Amino acid sequence: MARIIPILLLALCGARICAAAEIPPDQRLVAGRLPCAGDWDGRANGWRQLAWELMKRTSVEAQLETRPVAPDSPDLFLTPFLLWTCPGPVSPLSDAALAELRRFIKLGGFLLIDDPKAEPDGPFEQSVRAVLAKLFPRQPLEPLAWDHVLFKTFFLVDDPGGRVEARRRLYGLVLDERLAVVLSSNDLLGAMSRDLFGGWEFGVQAGAGDRRELSIRMGINLVFYALCLDYKDDRVHLPFILKRRRL
Hints:
Blueprint: H1 4-12, H2 15-18, E1 31-33, H3 44-57, E2 67-68, E3 81-84, H4 95-106, E4 110-114, H5 123-135, E5 142-143, E6 171-175, E7 178-184, H6 188-191, H7 208-228, H8 238-246
Parallel strand pairs: 1-2, 1-3, 3-4, 4-7
Antiparallel strand pairs: 5-6, 6-7
């Protein structure tokens, strides 16, 4: 996980400092994607849009393309932010792959599970939950409380986002008080997915503009939490957060 530290410093540095020198490609945030049993769903455009919004709105630099990674490959540790999104079940993992993925998450890696079908308890979610049960049998996925720092780590949000609202809550797996895995049942990446001509690829529920913006903000919060953890959950930020809530 040695490359997580430069990325974390990059997220924390001010825009003026970051602008002084170009960020080397190997120090930009890279999102790895874990394998599916069948074809990958193709939410690459969702991540591309999120990465573009991330660079436009924050000082974080990110690669626009996701990188396929095998859980038992050393490349896993070059991608501190992992995505798992499949139209059907995830790829079965060997014992060696499970051990490496467990090690990756324990050492500080972050895993975002996003259901492109938005089917709670569907084939994708069932297969993912089965894998997580093998990885961390004593840490189940649980609904995240609305006062969790994830919902204020960059933007103040009170909605999980996503193309549809299949579930009103995000689910998370916590290790040593750190949120290590997040499950969105609402197709978060699908809500912000644009084609190369700038058109939205998928329809959303009523209130399209708001839902897409909420999804982008939620995505940025997820990235910032993965990089910076609970830096926003301290007394210094409390007056500002309370003022914004009142507004």
